[in-house]
C-alpha cells in the first residue's frame, strides 16, 4: 500500500488495522525498529511518568512549572479526548498534522526496513519519540501507556522515572495484585538514576525492584511530604535533593489537580537538575489544568462537571473531592472495568444515576450497568441510549451534572458541548 500521500486521518485508520492485536505486550519488535532509527535526543532530559492514576495530572503540572521557568517542553500522553494531536504537545501547542504524518512515515519506513508489524499504540509512541529527537526540547515528559516494564515508553532511559500511584486497572493485562502491578510499573526504573514514587501506601515490590536494578528511590512519606496550610489556599513541601540534603519550600498555591501528585512532581523536579524559581513553581502549580479532570463546562445553561475517572481509585478520589455535594451522575463505562466498584465509590455523591450506553468497542450498555449497581443502591436509576441523549434530557433542569466513567464518556460530552457552540 502506498502511504506517501496519506493524511493524518488515513494514517490513523491504517494504524488501527495494521497489527494482529490492539495490545501486544513486549518490547522486542519495538526495540528492533527503535534501534534501526538510531535517534539522537541531544541534551534533552527525559522524564517517564507511570502509575494507575495521576499520570496526566503529573505531566500537566511538570509541564506548567518547567514552561513557567522558561524551559522548552514536549509532552506525550494518551489517550486523547477529541483529536490525536492532543497526544504530542510541544511547548503548550498541539503537534500539527504535518509533524505527525512525517513521524508516521519515518516509523513506517523503519518498520518496513526490518520487516516488523507494529500496533496502533506502538507506532504512535515511536512516532512521539521520533518527534522528541527532531525537536530536542529541554525536557520531554513521556506518559507510560500500560504498566511500565513492557510499555514502548520504556525504550527510553529516563533521567527521572516517576510512579504517581499504584491501583488496580487493566486487570486483563496486569492482573489485580498490587505487588505484581507495582513490579510492572517499576520496570521504568534505571540503574543509578533517581526514581520517585508518590503512592502513600506503595506495594513492597516498588522498593524491591529499585533495589534490584540499583535505582535511587525517593518515596512519599519517607523522603518527601507536603503540608496543606490552615487557610486551604497554600501548601508547603519537604523533600530531598540528589545529595539527600533536605529541601523545604513554603507558600505554594494549591493546584486544581491532586496535591499528592504536585508533591511527587516537586520531588522529581529537585532530582532532574533544572533551576526553577519559586515564582515559576507558583505560576506553574496555579495554572496547571488537564481536560477531562474535574472540568467545569456548560451546556444550554446547565452546568456540567466532566471527569474521566474509570477505576475505583480514581472514583474514590473524585468522591472525596466532591464530598458533601450531590449530583445527577451521567455514567458510561467500558466492559473491562470494575464497574460495580466504581459505582460504589461514587455512590455517596449521587442523587440520581443516569446510565448510558457507550457505542464503542468494549462499550458497556446502560442495561448491563444497571445490573452492576451495588445492592445497597437506593437512588433513582435511569437508562439512556447515549451520553448526548442523557445530557440533552437533563439540561433543562439546570442542575449540575457529573459526567464520568470513561475517556469515551467525557469525549462524547465535549463533542456535544462544542457542537452546540458551533451550532
TrEMBL record:
Coiled coil: none
Alphabetized UniProt keyword annotations: ATP-binding, Folate biosynthesis, Ligase, Magnesium, Metal-binding, Nucleotide-binding
Domain Mur ligase C-terminal: from-to ranges: 297-406
Family per similarity comment: Belongs to the folylpolyglutamate synthase family.
Metabolic or biological pathway, per its Swiss-Prot or TrEMBL entry: Cofactor biosynthesis; tetrahydrofolylpolyglutamate biosynthesis; Cofactor biosynthesis; tetrahydrofolate biosynthesis; 7,8-dihydrofolate from 2-amino-4-hydroxy-6-hydroxymethyl-7,8-dihydropteridine diphosphate and 4-aminobenzoate: step 2/2
Group of enzyme by EC: ligase
Claim: ATP-binding is one of the keywords in the record: yes
GO molecular function, one term: metal ion binding
Family annotation (InterPro entries): Folylpolyglutamate_synth, Mur-like_cat_sf, Mur_ligase_C, Mur_ligase_C_dom_sf
SUPFAM superfamilies on file: MurD-like peptide ligases, catalytic domain, MurD-like peptide ligases, peptide-binding domain
Protein name as it appears in the record: Dihydrofolate synthase/folylpolyglutamate synthase
GO biological process terms, semicolon-separated: folic acid biosynthetic process
